[in-house]
Write a structure and sequence with these properties.
- By secondary structure, the chain is of the alpha+beta class.
- It has 3 domains: 127 residues, 2-Layer Sandwich (Heat Shock Protein 90); 116 residues, CBS-domain (Roll), CATH 3.10.580.10; 177 residues, SLC41 divalent cation transporters, integral membrane domain (Tetracycline Repressor, domain 2, Orthogonal Bundle).
- It is 55% helix and 14% strand.
- The strands form 3 sheets. Strands 1-2-3-5-4 form a 5-stranded antiparallel sheet.
- Strand 6, helix 7 and strand 7 form a beta-alpha-beta unit.
- The protein is elongated and about 100 Å long.
């Protein structure tokens, strides 16, 4: 979205709020995030002039840009005055007597993800960023050590000492230019082996692995895991270093992602709380929606069985093999989908592998189907008085069902990702329903063809 500027007197606050909300709607900003931004805008815009002047006179300018994160800049002309610092008692008292509260900026600091002040060209500029809940910007830490490439190793150690003993992320230093753009990284252990008078540019690594503030937390965790990093730098839309994400944070992200996937694959809505910390009503509410969906879709299998009632009346023994076929189909599909979702999560399987994946799983389905079919053929001959026609009908149905189940199990997660649906939603429960329907149709038509019922 292009950046748009609005200038308004602080008294016309409604204009500012309407403008911000309209622009964020056009940019596709999620409703929850939009509400946060409007709250921040209302608090800051109505107070920035108060902090600078201590009066309602004057105007302020807002510049907004939104894509995957939201950037807002507030500015007003006047004497240099940092509203983020502790306010002058007289100005604060003056501001607190007005509505909304003169403490708006401090309230906004708690709501925003990043808020900074600078004085430039006779303007007080307050820059605020708000990131989506699942983005890298939401969890990045501002605790990192920066170097300039013109520094010596000795000066770099001085920077590290200034970071203080409480900073537990000082194992990598980040080299930035005068504008704050990321230029390289240097491991602290490298500094120990370098000469004290050596320049940082001589020991730094220019090939930097980094993330953007708008990247998903899951992608960031995969990146840290893939390259075995202790921390990952995060840059903003101007390519400036905005923060870092430590490896310990990535572990937490992967644990949460894994827990969510397991719950979704089991047809349970994800919960943020531990099992024993979740109430009975909440546990039930998380499970009921999918149970209802699966119960209603299961009626399809009942309709199929009812439509082949004549075949069952002619050969009642066919009914005894329905559970075996349906269970085998569901298990075969669930096996495949679990492996495919895991491969997608680890980056081993991508969209371009779609047809290659189908061919591969079809071959696996043939081998598995033939093996299960042969065992089943022998079992039916032994247990059903050598009825070869019945054994053949069920065996052919079983082989075809396993092949179809394996194919469905590998394609559904890929299709889900393509249409931007969580692949875990397409996992075991839904795939089981699809394969059950397929298994019954194949079974009854094969039985009618071979047994003539």
């Amino acid at each position: 979205m292009k950046e748009i500027i609005i200038t308004a007197n602080v008294e016309s606050l409604y204009r500012v709020i309407d403008f911000v909300e309209d622009e964020l709607k056009r940019s596709g900003c999620p409703r929850k995030m939009r509400s946060r931004v409007v709250l921040i805008t209302e608090e800051i815009f109505s107070n920035i002039a108060f902090y600078a002047y201590g009066s309602e006179a004057g105007s302020a300018t807002i510049r907004i840009s939104a894509d995957k994160d939201v950037l807002i800049e507030f500015s007003d002309s006047g004497v240099p005055y940092n509203p983020l610092e502790k306010t002058d008692p007289d100005i604060q008292k003056n501001a607190e007597e007005r509505e909304p509260s003169g403490l708006g900026i401090f309230l906004a600091k708690k709501t925003a993800d990043d808020i900074r002040y600078e004085y430039s060209e006779n303007k007080n500029i307050l820059t605020v960023r708000v990131y989506p809940d699942s983005s890298a910007g939401k969890i990045m830490s501002p605790d990192y050590v920066c170097f300039k490439k013109e520094m010596t190793v000795e000066e770099a150690f001085g920077q590290i000492r200034m970071a203080g003993p409480d900073n537990n992320t000082v194992y990598t230093g980040y080299v930035t230019c005068a504008d704050g753009c990321l230029e390289g990284v240097v491991a602290v252990r490298q500094l120990f082996h370098a000469r004290q008078d050596a320049l940082i540019m001589d020991v730094m690594n220019f090939n930097v692995i980094y993330a953007n503030v708008s990247d998903s937390q899951n992608d960031v965790a995969k990146l840290i895991n893939q390259y075995d990093l202790l921390s990952l730098p995060v840059i903003d839309r101007e390519n400036k270093l905005a923060g870092i994400i430590a490896a310990r944070d990535a572990v937490g992200i992967l644990q949460k992602e894994t827990s969510d996937d397991i719950e979704k694959m089991a047809a349970v809505n994800p919960s943020e709380k531990p099992y024993f910390g979740t109430g009975i009503i909440t546990l039930s509410r998380n499970r009921i929606p999918w149970l209802l969906v699966l119960m209603l879709t299961a009626t399809i299998t009942g309709m199929i069985i009812e439509s082949f009632e004549d075949a069952l009346l002619a050969a009642p023994i066919l009914a005894t093999f329905i559970p075996m076929l349906m269970d085998t189909a569901g298990n075969a599909g669930a096996q495949t989908s679990a492996l495919i979702i895991r491969g997608m999560a680890l980056g081993e399987i991508v969209m371009k592998d779609f047809f290659k994946l189908i061919w591969r799983e079809a071959q696996v389905g043939v081998i598995c189907g033939l093996t299960l079919g042969l065992v089943n053929f022998a079992r039916i001959l032994l247990m059903n008085s050598g009825d070869a026609s019945l054994a053949l009908a069920i065996t052919i149905s079983l082989i075809a069902t396993v092949i179809v189940a394996k194919t469905v199990g590998c394609t559904m997660p890929i299709i889900a990702k393509k249409i931007h649906i969580d692949p875990t939603v397409m996992a075991a429960p839904l795939i089981t329903t699809i394969t059950d329907v397929t298994a019954l149709i194949l079974y009854f038509y094969t039985a009618k063809w071979i047994l003539g019922v």
